[in-house]
Every structure is written in structure tokens, then in C-alpha cells.
């Protein structure tokens, strides 16, 4: 037998877990012994990944209170507890002048990237407080730290997420609950095309030139960082927004 897996005995919920960085986090958590509820608006995708990994899938629209409430209840019914919550679900608007983004696009970014963090906290923090333990991880973005033009309201939503992380961390620390964030740079995920406007070799090369390590973030990179921050190895770490970005924001 090897050494004990790092998330042995832990139960995790990962929102937006069916694809992209979320799926990378789900795969790593499962490999490290966690029982994972893969929560996504795309239930079919979540179920496919759950079947592959022997985990559970659940439908959620993270912008809707009733849907998040239902997810939390389903998790507690299925597992009896939740130890880790990963707020990974996120969207962006297409690159455009900040005064030309439609109200509908703004509202979508606000609801999926920001309100979701409030809603999952509303329905899961009481459980964490009662058990005097828990780890929350918010998947923010380098956009929070080093905003690029034409993604203004997306950038702002991720800045909000980082401040929420620090605020939650300081308030929940007395309850033994840790709250951290990771800041990926863009990666090979469904959102890449959205960030770049269009995906051409020229635009990719220009984008990669801004990353000192010379590659995009991968789902595996996020899984590794998330696993550490949500494990007991990070028991003294709370309120950080850790760049996982190949040096992009330096």
C-alpha cells in the first residue's frame, strides 16, 4: 500500500465540474480519494464524467437560489456531510468596449460569477459552521489582478471574488473553515475562445507571449493547486488568492 491519499474520506462539491478547469479539479480530487459531486448546468456532461470516475453528478444553475439549495440538500442526503466546496462555475462576456456590453451579458456574468458564491455560502456555510470544519475554494482569475482591456465586467467579477474570498476567510476562521482562491491564466477550456474573441494561431501566439512559462494553464494545473489548498496540508492557509498562471501577472 502507498501512503494515504490526500483527500481520503473527504466529500467535495465542484460546480462547473463537467468541463474545463472544473473537470481537472474533479479528476484530481477523485484520484486523491475524495467522493465528488460533479455539479453542472450541463447534467449530461456531469453524468458522463461521473460514470467514468465512479462519482455522483447533479444539475445546478449556480445563479438560482432554489437550484443551489436543492444541490446542497442532495449532497447532504447522498453523503451525510460536505467537507469541500469548489466554486468553479464561471462565464465571461465576449471582448468588447466596457460601455458596449449589453445589460443581459453583464447580468449573466454577475449572476454566475458573483451571486453564485453568495448562494453556495448561504446553503453550505451553516453546515461547515456546525461541523467546525470545511474548505471553500473560489476559482477566480488573473483578470482579478492584472485586468486586460475589453473584458472589464468579467475582470471586475473576478476582483469581487478575490475580495469575497478574503472577507469570508477572516469571518469563518473562528469556525475552523478555510477559504482560498486560485487565479488561473486562460487555458485550453471552453472559455478560451470567449476571452480571445477568436481563436487563431496569431492571437494564440500573442497571448502566450504574455506568459513567462510559455504555456496555457491546464485543467491538471488547477487540479493540483486545488487539491493542495483544500487538503489538510494547507491547514494554515486561508484568505489567499494563489496565481496558477506561469508568471503572467508578474
Report on this structure.
There is one protein chain. With 250 residues, this protein is α/β, with parallel strands linked by helices. The protein has one domain (11-243): NAD(P)-binding Rossmann-like Domain (Rossmann fold, 3-Layer(aba) Sandwich). 45% of the residues lie in helices and 15% in strands. The chain contains 8 helices and 7 strands. It has helices at 20-31, 43-53, 65-79, 103-131, 152-172, 192-196, 201-208, 219-230; strands at residues 11-15, 35-40, 56-59, 84-87, 134-139, 177-184, 241-244. A 7-stranded parallel sheet has the order 3-2-1-4-5-6-7, sandwiched between helices. Helix 5 links the parallel strand 5 (134-139) and strand 6. Helix 1 (20-31) crosses helix 8, helix 3 packs parallel to helix 4 and helix 4 packs parallel to helix 5. The longest helix has 29 residues, at 103-131. The termini are far apart.
